[in-house]
Protein 1
Amino acid sequence: MIKKLWATVVCIARSGIIRHGLVVLFSVLLFSCIKNRKFDALDITCNEALVANISYQEVKNLYTDQTIQIQEDFIIEGYVISSDKAGNFFSVLHFQDKLMNASEGFQIEIDLRDSHLFYPVGSKIAIKLKGLYLGQSKGIYKIGGVFSSFGNLSVGRLPASIVQEHLFLLCDPIGTINAPMITLQEPLDNFLNTLVQFNNMEFIEEELGETYAVSAEATLRILKDCEDKTLGLQNSGYSDFQNETLPEGNGSITGILQKENDDYFLLIRDLEDIIFENERCPPFVDEFTSTNILISEIADPNNNLGARFIELYNSSTESFSLKGWSLRRYTNANTTIGSIIDLTGHVIAAESTFVISPNASEFEIVYGFAPDLSVGTGSAADSNGDDNIELVDPFGVVIDVFGIVGEDGTGTNHEFEDGRVVRNASITQSNAIYSFSEWQIYNDSGAAGTINLPQNAPEDFNPSIR
């Protein structure tokens, strides 16, 4: 009943039938009928005279590298896209330049409760910028009051007593904000501080069963799309939906796009911005196995222990992600793993090598270039010539091996102490069973058919060349 009466009076006020005094009288009457709520009394009469005289981009261009106070009689206008009705926004009003296909957005910090009653979503507003402060952080532009921290000025909330001196409701009818549908593959900076929609989104499995926010705490929940790309959803611990459980399905989410520390996140107005009615995405697979990845060289130089390395080779015509892959070393005759190198996060280019060094600084001094991956001493790439090495795929399957696990290499056909192991150039596929015929092996003993010829760095080695 109250909402209907309120809408009627606002409509009449905008049409010019009712005068300012009656609107204020009604506001007082309305507020007095609501228990345990406090409102900031504002003049809600719409303004027909204000016209924008500066663009969003021109306002942004005023900012250099620190918060400034705007001294000129500039006016910008826009459409409200946020609402504090559900309590997920506090003392801030977001607005953008157009109802649809928006290209720019701003936020104004205001010390005003229940601003949705005065500036509902879709209403057009004008802001007198003279005297306000302008700041920017990570592409997010703010206007408002000011506060000082350790001598540095930052944009803060505009006191409620002067909000109506700067922020005006225009007489245009309330419009419908059409949020564009975008994906996480697009350049998101183009949509900052505007209302957007993402489809095929869902909460990550680890957070299912959780609530939207921890009580009284700002809480970041994580969304992902079906390509496993993620996006934050920041919720207030004071919002009306704080204690609601996150939905398990998949679907669309609409919100205002924000950014902090290079991470993007959304702010929703209420739970109507989330429609998760579809089945969740099928499991996303980004870990793969391949027999085209193999060990191509292992080094234990006779003259410099710091110049040791292991080289891998990709024999395929496409680059390959090593996500989930690892190298394992079995020391001497041990059957338990002595050390592991996690290769996740690295890629081997097509028909190219990947060099791993336990001493990157010494490697670069000796060979004249940096290794592809630097690991620590004592790692799987730091063998003294009688250890056994396995290359393992993301599913725990041994793809390639040098040596025989459980057999100390000393005096065998897989000893490379003070020497070098080189895979024959004709071998382009991995082999999970050690085969002596696939290798040229140099050492200081010549045992079991190996080559008794210690190798010195750098002249006897060619890391990165297959």
Note: The helical segments are 2-15, 20-32, 56-62, 160-166, 360-367.
Protein 2
Amino acid sequence: MSRTILRGRVLTFVSEPQGVDDTASYRYLEDGAITIEDGKIIAVGDFVSDDIAEVIDHRPHLILPGFIDMHLHYVQSQMIASYAASLLEWLNTYTFVEEQKFGQQGHAGAISSAFFDELIRNGTTTAVAYCSSHPQSVDAFFAEAEKRNMLMVGGKVMMDRNAPEALCDTAQSGYDDTKMLIERWHGRGRGLYAISPRFALTSTPEQLEASQTLVAEHPDCYVQTHLSENAAEITYAMELYPGSPDYTGIYEDYGLLGPKMLLGHCIHLNHRETRVLAETGSVAVFCPTSNLFLGSGLFDHERLSKAGVRIGVATDIGGGTSYSMLRTLDEGYKVLQLRGQRLTPLNSFYMMTLGNARSLSLEGTIGAIAPGNAADLVVLNAGATPAMALRLATVTSLVEELFLLQTLGDDRAIAEVYVAGARAKSTLGGL
């Protein structure tokens, strides 16, 4: 097998930072070497000249694990920046119209290819995606991931009410389609399936029962849905499920909560809901750009974290406004500033790498630069733009550099991306 060494400034996290000075939470090598063979990392350490392996020198740039995005909708790639006053208006005016296109021949393949290009351009090597209600949208998504050898999670949206007829399945057809797609794609290559009832508003009790059956039959699959994004959404959910104690209680009643449950938004949770998420190990996914864009509210990271809730972070394309995890955490920092909470640069980069890997129960596979992990990596240039280079000239610490990257960085700061050890960004067409 061919062996490659990536040389550069290597940064990887080993635990969640407990403050801006927590140097024990990460490992940093000023002149590091990542040895890659057969798509995996086999060694990490200080650089030593090697006459056998090919050496790719990325100095003075930083090399980190590839970014992980916990929640987004690839089928909304062409409706980013669509004007609307609130979530439900946005769904009805744009989202459902756009998603109907995925019933057209060839549309899903074209969009999935462009979508994956954007992920790579922005340094994201793993993402958790909602497809449309059309099975062919799932096939296109996983086929493109397989072609690029990317570890991706996704699933067909299940919804059997409160949506256009062209997008609705039934409880039975949603079950049948999902079961077929799990058999086709889950565990194939690096693909992993997420059972995906869109949210309580678009699923009947019968469909949530079918989802419960799927979860029982396929416990190794993920589950993804939305929770407590918007006040009007919460009110409507409780009108549809009056027997449940609260919005979280709907999913709890149908046995959907657990360590593999990924719940987008979780902004307006009461204390009971917060406790239930912590007790079940369910994951609350913070989507800052989307929450700001739709005026949904400010995520309470500190309260959920202190209660023991597992937390991920995500772009939420297309309610979110950028594919970039750097831009997303910049907005996340501002959301928490408005909450009177601190998000250190260390915590931001932890969240988009090892933190999200842990939220996906994939620690030891992705999210860290360590022997045995996949060689999914991102190379960051903190002087990528004139404004960044001007600021970089006064940077005196690693933490300052990370904050510069988070605050001013975007796809231009991504110097290179490696997927399973293979160059990805520099091989994109048109670059």
Note: The chain is about 35% helix and 25% strand.
Protein 3
Amino acid sequence: MLHRQKVPSIAIIGAGLSGLCMAIQLKKAGLGNFMLYEKADRVGGTWRENTYPGVACDVPSHLYSFSFEPKADWSKVFSPGGEIQTYIEDITAKHDLLPNIRFGSELKKAEWLDKGWQLTFADGSVAHADFLINGMGGLHIPRFPDIPGMKGFKGISYHTAEWNHEHDLTGKRVAVIGTAASAIQLVPEIIDKVAHLDIYQRTPNWIMPRPFMEYSERAKKLFVRFPLLEKLHRLQIYLLFEMRFPLFRRDRFFSKRATKMFVKHLEAQVSDPELRDKLMPNYPIGCKRILASDTYFPAIQCDHASLITEPINRVEADAIVSADEVRRPVDTIIYATGFKPWDQMEGVEIIGRNGITMNNYLSQGIRAHRTVAMPGFPNQFMLLGPNSGLGHNSVILMIEAQVSYILSAIKHTLATGAKAVEVKEEAANIFDAQLQHDLQGTVWAGHCKSWYQGEDGRIFTLWPWGTRRYMREMKCANPEEYEFTA
């Protein structure tokens, strides 16, 4: 029985950054009876899966790393994906987490059975735990567009998150469908290899300048020798990024300044007025994800590249046909179309108290109390849950705050001798109502269609305020918002 255990058993699903952060802090707190269940054969999550050419983080390296595990020798201001993956593997080894990770364990079902959670995996194995912490993340299943004829294509096709390293693009006619975050990193990397590149753009994006900056050996040595210097550098980056937040609250000054910066960048890199028109967004800046690149605009202006803004009508065996019936031959199709929004429940059945399923609960609106808990699901918490994404700063800040909050809730449960902790429905409803009200004051509400919101217009991905407010509110779980069962 849980209330008789000094150290409860804890199951963490997913060995990405959020799951590993939870594991490290549990270990530090003396709650070492945990197991991470990872579907793949390595840690890393997003950075293990995404290995396409040019993959990198759009948050500066020193801020896209744990505050308690700084890395003094990042190679670039914006690190490539492989370096981030190495960082993740290094902290896993440093904290000796591998004995607590069971690889090849894809969760298919989790059910609350009063005495705890019963977990069933794809290989048929079963495990039990007192607490369940979901660290699968909200964006990990690739999204493919629904285009007639896709299955009949005879060439090679794949998603950026499932990069085919065996396929050589040299001398091929390639089509990249999508022009968002992965595409603007990918296109400049492959443009010199391919015979011809067609880039299919549905909606133009706000793309800001991003100088290619490497840290000098001197700077890295200083960070190593004087750790306080690295901390001050991280703080500087944080403050610069946090200053962008008013843009998302429709601040006219910041919006005007950011728009001017984009237009200046576009005009400096694209001289053709017709092409500039195609690349100019017609929605407020910040409504969709703001991107950054100094190499994308030059790449799409190469003689053997074409930016196509006509919608795709169909895919044929060896070509793509646009809505104007222009047929463009293609050997390889690369889908740079992102991920399914809030997809972590796809293929997983989570059953809470009295038989309620998480899919059923979320069908009434994708939401979670304080972004981490749901009524009806005792001893279950979520990392990077609904409304914990950011448009202006590092999600690492959110992960660390959530881990601290969850840890405080577990500790309080144990201190009271309770068997289970569950958020009160009334508290969850009050929080959600206030959250949705606050989101209406943002640039994301009603100005454009993006993956930030569902078909019903509910914004379920982003936090409506700055990170300082989030960290303050998540410092400790409020026991009055929870029901403790003895």
Note: The longest helix spans residues 395-415.
